[in-house]
Amino acid sequence: MPWTVRKFVPRSAPVILLILTLAAAGGFAAVGHLVNRFNANQRARGLKLYEQGLAAASDGNYDRAIAALRAALTCDPANSQYQLSLARALRDSNDPRRLDEAESYLLALWQRSPQDGAVNLALARVAAHKGDIDEAIRYYHNAMYGVWNANLESNRSKSRIELIQFLMKKGARDKAESELMALAASLPPNPAAHLQAADLFAQNQSYEGELVQCNEVLHLEPENSVALACSGHAAYLLGDYVTAQHYLQAAANGNPQDKEAREMLATTELVLKTNPFHSHISDAERNRRIAAAFDQAEKRLGECAQKDGVDLQAAPPTSSVGMLQERWLAVKPDLAKLRSAAEADLPDTIMDVVFEIEQQTAANCGAPQGADEALLLISQKREASTQ
Question: Residue 109 in contact with residue 90, Cβ under 8 Å?
């Protein structure tokens, strides 16, 4: 019945166009749905691989982490977090061949967002791995003053401390000192933060800064035994033994289990009792201390010679031990002249011999103990005061 078929076939062009349009729209919708579903599946797969990569990196398995993060980035090529995490894994794998690749990912991220604190910190760490001081300083500073999604002050402080530790490791103490001063100026009134800064100053052998930071803690917590020991340590290494004694005694009283503070206190007290140049002692006490130091130097020289199997009586005058022995013998008669007002330079002359013996025996025979350690410390302070 052909007439019935033709009856239902539309003969109007608009109707045909409408049907075709609806069919195309339906096709596009179906394709769009499939594409969206595929993209969603890819994103889900990428997220799963990303999490696997982070877990592997956390376990120190960087080869596995890198493989997973590469695959995650393939699933979601525009994901900046995946790129950043892959760059970090490449960097932290400690494979020098991967540093350039890590840097290339990070520079691409940096070009898109040069103020991003996390990206700048990652670049700073790459520079640190390469040992590039100037680049590390540049990117650490960018991280300090960059944009962070959260924990702004904490991340800034962390970035500066990392830079300080890197500079100290590279032996750039002057640059580390500048960063330490900037860190100290920005610290909140928090004992833990000041103690951390004090420790960094001490590591950089900046004992004045260490003392200042420890005293900041004591302003906040006057009975803080850690800060008392810290102040005592700094004053001790600065050669200010009167101040050191004050703080170390308080630290030992507050924490009798602090063995280091007690040992340092004992040495400090020995220095104060031994030093002939200490102010506010009588001439008679000064002369007694000089004579005791002179005798102690002879004893130390004898012990050092015995340790090396050297007979002082038979030692050639050209040997180091023989020369020290000759100097000691040459000065010995002058001890009787100490009371003479006309021999005002004798104390220095005699103590110069004592200090030379203590310094050379310390270099040749190992670290001294007791009175010899005290005399060595006195000699170091005296040298520093004349420079």
Answer: no
Burial class (CB in 10 A: 0-12, 13-18, 19+), 251: buried
Cβ(104)–Cβ(131) below 8 Å: no
The pTM for the full model equals 0.80
Q: Tokens for 41?
A: 């599946």
Structure-block tokens of residue 287: 């002369």
CA distance 213 to 191: 9
Domain boundaries, the chain: 283-385
CA distance 25 to 22: 5
Q: Which two tokens stand for residue 231?
A: 């102040």
Look-up: residue for tokens 């040495």? 267
pLDDT (tens digit, 9 = 90+) per residue, 266-303? Answer: 999 999 999 998 888 998 999 999 999 999 999 999 88
Which residue is listed with tokens 């990392």? 162
**DSSP per residue over 176-224, as a string?**
HHHHHHHHHHT--S-HHHHHHHHHHHHHTT-HHHHHHHHHHHHHH-TT-
Instruction: Determine the Cα–Cα distance for residues 237 and 208; give it in Å rounded to an integer.
Output: 9
Helices (DSSP H) in the chain: which residue ranges?
Answer: 2-8, 13-58, 62-75, 80-92, 96-112, 117-130, 133-144, 152-169, 173-185, 191-203, 207-220, 225-237, 241-254, 259-274, 283-307, 320-331, 346-365, 370-385
Q: Tell me how far apart the terminal alpha carbons of the chain are, to the nearest angstrom.
A: 122
